[in-house]
Each structure stands twice: as structure tokens, then as C-alpha cells.
Amino acid sequence: MTCPWMSLVASLAQWAFRLITRRDVYGKYVPTDRRTDLKKIAFMEKAEPTEDVLSAHFAGQSVIGLFVLAIDGSCRVVVIDIDRHGEEGDANANEKAAITLFDRAVGQGCSAFLEDSNGCGGYKLWLIFEEPVPASWARQFARRLVEDWKDLGLEKQPEIFPKQDTLKPGKFGNFVRLPGRHHTLDFWSRIWDGTGWREGEDAARVILATRGSLATSLSEELRCDKTLPSGSSAKTTPGKANARPIPIWLVRSASEALPTSFFTSYEIWLNLGMSLLGLGDEGLRLWEEASRNKCPKYRAGACGEKWVTFTLQPGGLTYRSLFRWAMQFGWSPRGRKKSGRAITPAPTRAEQVENPVVQSDMKPNQPAPTSGHDGDGGQAPNGGTTPDEGGQPPDANAAQSASGGIPKRPQILWEDRPPPDVTDEALAAYKATASQKRLFVKGGALVRLRRTEEGPRTEELS
Fold first, then answer.
1. Does pLDDT of 177 surpass 50?
2. 190, 217, 244: which is the final residue of a domain?
3. Segments forming the whole domain that contains residue 446
């Protein structure tokens, strides 16, 4: 069977790779000429669904599906499956109901596409989220969409994938077949674009245009689960109860700022991966994307092979290390549009007192500790200790106490956010030291601190 999507196979594989939440397993269908038991037409392949595996699927060389529920109970995909086999049900009623549900989902702010999965009245509505969300919430959102399924003319209630809110130890859940060639019929998926059914490359382009929506952008009417955090991701900082969500959008921005030359060193490439380990599957996804786009010796699956050998170490590399590396190449989050999920508001003063993250009276040249991990401890790519962005300059003995005129360092609050978020406080601290030193050592070079439109910046002296 000729593949109608051949020119877009690589793009489709990259699109699907972003949606993967289980990198240790995928579903695979037995080729029709090798089937000996019609009740066993698919099996579970305990291997990573690499881009090569995905490319083979979209090229029609094999047919696979993804397990959409992660071990931590999150997902990036919810599929509403209106199934029809043989002569069961009404194919026309199914199509009408599927289009209605698609319009309803899009109208509620969801990024979605509708797939004609078998040409016989079977349809799948794919709801795509930009970042992982709790599966319990996502499934409830889908149930609210289809709660009037009888009124829509359907003979049975549509299935919702994932089928569970959480996974029991050692379990995998259910996989969902990806769009493409049907596992049995001579049929390739058609995709509804809101006005009509598209086939071939036009259908593939509709899929590729579905990049994912933020959970917080969906209609309040259907966001009925109050357990959803104000940020869309289910992931939080390891080791800290009720930690604020990690700003994935900012981490992605920092990784994109790293130049190609950054990836020429094998050791630095490994350090980048280890700095993202605390982000879980999303961290691996970001490392894979950065490596694929900028690593001269990129090999599909190499990141996954190394990832399983990493372990979180107290005082080791974290995503904050990545922020610092990116800033050495001119990256800054100040003034950037937050294209990813919303971030949970910073703790109130009362919360800070109850769970202090305030660091004061820092010693000269001492980086400020970070919350969420047991310190950063990252090394800059050049081997030197990374500078403390936004921290207090050395010898900052300026502000006089009202009681005895004893020099007192300005207090800077460090919360679970990247240092540039507190540059206003850092600038105030610097102003308070105006009578003190203005020259500092950064990475073994003499620099001075100056103010720019984007905030305080260091300038190397020649």
C-alpha cells in the first residue's frame, strides 16, 4: 500500500514523539499475513518508541499505538473513541456526533483533531495538551464533553483513553493506535479540519498543526475538577511537598538558546541531560528535542539510553544550571511572553515564614541556595563555577542599621523561580552598595556590573 503521507513522515514522527509519556513500551499490531489468532492481533513491545519506530508507522511499514498514561498519573493526550465494527451502530449518526464533539471541544478552547479511523463509522477525537496534566482531570474533562452521548444519537457510550486515572505497580494501561494506516483494512486515516474531511498530505498537515493547548485556557464550565493546579502540569519539584510547578516553558526557552557549539562536547551534552533529570519524562523530551536540533552527532534513542543511567544527586545539576549556561550566551527570560503553562503564584509572606526560602547575609562570591532540590552545585560548561545571577555582589556592606550604624547586607528573597525573576531586588541591593566595589570576578575574568533595559548585566573588561 502506497503511503500518502511520505513527504511528511519525519515531521509526523517528531510530532508524535512529543506526546510520548511512556518511553519503555508501546503497542504493535501483528501484520495481517502473520496472524494465526484473530483474538491476538496486537501485542505490547517493551522497547522505546523512538522516532525511527514512529517513522515506520507513519510510512505504513508497521502499525503501532502509544500508551498515553504516565507512571506518575499524567497524560498529554486524551482520546474519545467512537467505535464501530461490522454493521453495529449507525455510521452516519456516529459521524454527526463526532463532528459535534469536535466543534464542542474546539469551542471550549481545546487543541484537537478528529480522525476517521477506519472508513466504516469509527472516529477518534484527539485532545492534545501542551504539557502533562493529571489524567484524573483530563478524563473528567472528556466525560463532561460526552455526557449527552445518547442525545447525540450514539448507541453506546464512547470510550475514553486513558481508561484509568492512575496505574497500579507494574501495569501499563491501554494503548491507542496512532493515525495512519489501518491495521487490517486498506484504509488511511482521514482528518476533519472543521469544514470537511482531508486525505493524504492535507490530512497530515492538520495533525501537525495540532500542537496542544494549556489546561488553564479551557472553559471554566468544563474545568470541573478543582484538584487541577493553576499551572497545567502535574509535575512538581521532586522532594518538596506542595512544590510549585517547574516552569517547563522557560526551561524549553533556555535550551533553545544554547548554540550548536554547546553540543560538540560529549561531557557537556551529558551534563545538559542530567540538569533536566528532575523534570521527569518532560526533561527527557526537552533533551531529545535539543539534541535532535543542534547535536552534530545526534542519534535517535541515545538520550533515552543515557537517561536511564542518571540518578538525582543532592547538590547536583538541576534545570537552574541550564538557566545559567543559557545566560552565558545572552539568554534572558525578562520580558518574554509566557508561551507555556501559567505558573503558580509565589508564596505569600506568611507562607515564606512558615516554609522559609529567604537567604540573607550571604558571604562574598557565595551562590544563593535554591529551593526544590538540595542545592544546585552545577558546573559551567567551561569547568568554572557558575556565577550567581541576581545575587548580592561581593562586599555588599552598605545599608546601615538604625540602631548602631553597623553595616548590614541588603536582604534578597530567593523563591522557587529563576534568578532573573528577582532582578529588581538584586538591583536595589547593588544600589545600596554604590560606595563599595563595582568590579567582580566571573569565570576567571574581570567584569563590571551595569544596568541595561533588560536588567543588570555583567560586562567583561578587556
1. yes
2. 217
3. 358-369+383-460
